[in-house]
Design a protein that fits this description.
By secondary structure, this protein is of the alpha/beta class. The chain contains 9 helices and 15 strands. It has 3 domains: about 90 residues, D-Maltodextrin-Binding Protein, domain 2, CATH 3.40.190; about 80 residues, D-Maltodextrin-Binding Protein, domain 2 (3-Layer(aba) Sandwich); about 80 residues, ACT domain (Alpha-Beta Plaits). Strands 1, 2, 3, 4, 5 and 11 form a 6-stranded mixed beta sheet that branches.
Length: about 270
């Protein structure tokens, strides 16, 4: 099974893809738009994309691509994000002076840098890519912050594990396919949709009332601008129902209130480990 991801091998997306499909062959892509095109064309079976981090928030580009593309969500998973300081073999934590990583990862490790003032955080385009770069440099004074998967992928050594400030750091990932390739899972109790409403007083409230009327748990609302139409918005909603047989009831009422509704996927909700 070929699964596309955005980013380098060893990234958190790589780790999430293997968590969802352990036997998958990973197809790394430089850009998210390329990931979606590979799925739509059939060049890969599926893709795994991050949609939301519990600390940094939503990956807004992926909301836009879900709306624009002919793909659907098959399932979701939650990945605990553990940041690690990684160096080349033979390096020591006391000798590290420059630390490369994605800006979000660096920001999530501020306490570690406060405790190690000799280290200078340096922004890089990708967490796994920073490990790849450090290993290629062969410099014992350079390190990178990334997943343990990245250390395994490039032959790095974990010098300090779990250096993130907040242990409640999770990223939610979607596995997406074309509609014809979707493999429905039992008891889909969560629905992701996108919709637009008329620009008039009360239209959004009327639309959201559909969820209250059908005893749904409205767990996320996100708005994104409509490209080419200033001050018009697409609303993205995730909701859960107590009875999987009732997933469509709120949706039927919503369609009567909205100009446009797109179902992005029906799937079982992922839960944090107890």
């Amino acid at each position: 099974m070929r699964i596309a991801i955005q980013g380098e091998p060893g990234s958190f997306s790589h780790q999430a893809a293997l968590q969802m499909e352990p036997q998958a062959t990973i197809v790394p892509c430089a850009f998210s738009a390329e990931v979606f095109k590979l799925v739509e064309s059939g060049a890969v079976c599926a893709a795994v994309i991050p949609i939301e981090n519990s600390l940094a928030g939503s990956v807004v580009e992926h909301f836009d691509l879900l709306f624009q593309s002919a793909v659907q969500i098959e399932r979701e998973s939650l990945l605990r994000i553990r940041h690690n300081l990684i160096g080349i073999p033979g390096s020591r934590i006391e000798g590290i002076r420059q630390v490369l990583s994605h800006p979000v990862a660096l920001a999530q490790c501020r306490r570690f840098f406060a405790e190690h003032p000799a280290m200078s955080p340096t922004a890089f385009y990708d967490t796994a890519g920073s490990v790849k770069h450090v290993i290629a440099l062969g410099d014992k004074e350079s390190g990178a912050i990334a997943s343990e998967q990245a250390a395994l992928a490039y032959g790095g050594v974990v010098l300090a594990a779990g250096i993130e400030d907040n242990p409640a750091n999770y990223t939610r990932f979607f596995l997406i396919r074309t509609a014809t390739q979707i493999q429905p899972l039992p008891d889909p109790d969560k629905v992701s949709i996108a919709f637009t409403v008329e620009n008039r007083p009360g239209s959004l409230v009327s639309a959201l009332q559909a969820f209250a009327d059908h005893n749904t748990n409205l767990c996320k609302v996100e708005s994104r601008p409509v490209h080419g139409h200033p001050w018009q918005y697409v609303f993205y909603v995730d909701y859960q129902v107590a009875d999987p047989a009732e997933t469509g009831a709120a949706l039927d009422q919503l369609r009567r209130q909205c100009m446009f509704v797109k179902v992005l996927g029906y799937y079982p909700a992922a839960w944090l480990p107890s």
